Amino acid sequence: MPAIPPVAALVSETLPRVVVRSAVALDGAQQEAVGALCRQRFGPWSSISFEVDPAVIGGVWLRVGDVVVDGSLAGKLNQLGHHLREQLRESLAHDRASTI
Fold it and tell me: For residue 75, how many other CB atoms are within 10 A of its CB?
């Protein structure tokens, strides 16, 4: 008969892990606030880790299981760049069409 895995192992396999990235280290109160917000928004999680990544620039990036929430300044700048490129493409396409 196969051994029954401990309950803690089953729980940690089914609950998501949380990864939080910020440009600077978060202090204990900030870590607790982020953890509470993740629990409130996404439900319980098995573990949470905090990473420092200067590329974030500001704000936080987090992953809860398979869900990524990019609240970083770097993410916002990437979105803005993408939007501006799309607007430029549309404007150039419109200009070409009107000159034909």
Answer: 17
